[in-house]
Amino acid sequence: xxxxxxxxxxxxxxxxxxxxxxxxxxxxxxxxxxxxxxxxxxxxxxxxxxxxxxxxxxxxxxxxxxxxxxxxxxxxxxxxxxxxxxxxxxxxxxxxxxxxxxxxxxxxxxxxxxxxxxxxxxxxxxxxxxxxxxxxxxxxxxxxxxxxxxxxxxxxxxxxxxxxxxxxxxxxxxxxxxxxxxxxxxxxxxxxxxxxxxxxxxxxxxxxxxxxxxxxxxxxxxxxxxxxxxxxxxxxxxxxxxxxxxxxxxxxxxxxxxxxxxxxxxxxx
Amino acid sequence: xxxxxxxxxxxxxxxxxxxxxxxxxxxxxxxxxxxxxxxxxxxxxxxxxxxxxxxxxxxxxxxxxxxxxxxxxxxxxxxxxxxxxxxxxxxxxxxxxxxxxxxxxxxxxxxxxxxxxxxxxxxxxxxxxxxxxxxxxxxxxxxxxxxxxxxxxxxxxxxxxxxxxxxxxxxxxxxxxxxxxxxxxxxxxxxxxxxxxxxxxxxxxxxxxxxxxxxxxxxxxxxxxxxxxxxxxxxxxxxxxxxxxxxxxxxxxxxxxxxxxxxxxxxxxxx
Lengths: 269, 271
Hints:
The structure holds two protein chains of two kinds. By secondary structure, chain A is mainly α. Chain A folds into two domains: 13-144 and 238-262, no CATH class; 150-222. Chain A has helices at 12-15, 18-34, 38-54, 59-83, 108-134, 137-146, 151-180, 191-222, 241-262; strands spanning 89-92, 105-107. Chain A has a two-stranded antiparallel ribbon with strand order 1-2. In chain A, helix 2 runs antiparallel to helix 5 and helix 2 packs parallel to helix 9 (241-262). In chain B, a hairpin with a 2-residue loop joins strand 1 and strand 2. Chain B is mainly alpha-helical. Chain B has helices at residues 32-35, 43-57, 74-85, 88-103, 115-129, 133-149, 163-174, 176-188, 191-221, 225-260, 265-268; strands at residues 37-38, 41-42, 60-63, 70-72. Chain B has one domain. Chain B is 65% helix and 4% strand. In chain B, the strands form two sheets. A two-stranded antiparallel sheet of chain B has the order 1-2. A two-stranded antiparallel sheet of chain B has the order 3-4. The chains are: A mainly alpha, B mainly alpha. Chains A and B meet through helix 2, helix 4, helix 5, helix 7 and helix 8 of A and helix 1, helix 2, helix 3, helix 4 and helix 10 of B.
């Protein structure tokens, strides 16, 4: 199972404030959406890879991720290469095939646009784990509260995260119980068996969890959740000089990217 | 308030109805108790649903041919969330979607924006169930417009892609007798009416999730009709299976919640 979790390291990226990393991630996401030329997107990809190296994160994770999304990447590339309406012929492979809208010629623009779309997918995929793997959850929550995300939202995130192991244990128990009853094999049965098994898992799981929610509700109410608007926090986060430099750099890069795009640069014509 | 004298021979003239002063002041719009609720639903249920959503994200249900990804059980959770949580399903699915994307990134093709699909799916079906149909219809129409604003949506046969279940969704939201019947059935109904109503509401949640995903795919990866049109029958099949399975799970959960007298959206938004 492929999952991203915080990895303890003493890198520059780990020491940055979570707000700075959130801002940098947003800038990369905006840039990756406004550019559609592979050269520009490759620069963004290189930045993400450098950050990955800088944070001393395992590249095996990226490799596993790449394998996971290779199927959709191939489809995206093939569709653009064969059907992008380019003007510079690159390779003629057949006569026109009208009913599928293929001209018979692969164009340079099609190849470039296909590459760009694959790079866009890769950067979008790789940037979020970079944030998650270098930031403890508690710091991420604090950053959300500091940027004025309602406390209830942060509370819901942390509560759901803390409830997850108990829910997964319950799901595992229900799966085993249903297997004992011969309801179905969740892992290796046929599609129909797995679908039937899914229903037999979800109904008792949801009902059991809703029953538990009453206890949680009493616990939340008895602590007078929301009684005070002024909250205090065990952890505190401050923006230091490296954060300020990176934030300023992110804003500059964002403005430069928008300017380039306004000048019609960074796209496949 | 005056009382008539029982000893008096002549009947007392009729008195105007007494005006009772409220003994308890009306509750403030925002107090600590309302802060523990979102759209009227206790925050504990929303947190539990978000955790359930993440757990369901770890259980692959349907393989997606041509890709390494899987459609997981959270597709079912999204489809039925509006029926069980009302509009709060949007928040619960958003939290679950964000955590699920971090921990089990199956099918997170939109990176950090992947949570948008499940958020809108739960929110719009929840709005329809809560009878806030104007906002639900507005959001649905905005999504349909977002699909057609993209120039690629004007390629041959692309209009067919969002058609089947989106049409059912729009009808279920904007036709008052159908909407009210659905709400009544989910609140009090049994038998075939309940099954059909849950199927329709699950259709709203699922079709909104898929329409959002399709719109995002079109804008982010610029896929053309050569991808969408040939794969259309397959996706309609996947949608049908998902909605059917969601109906089975949804009816089971609704009946169970009623019997156990546990809080659900029907208690907060009675039909």
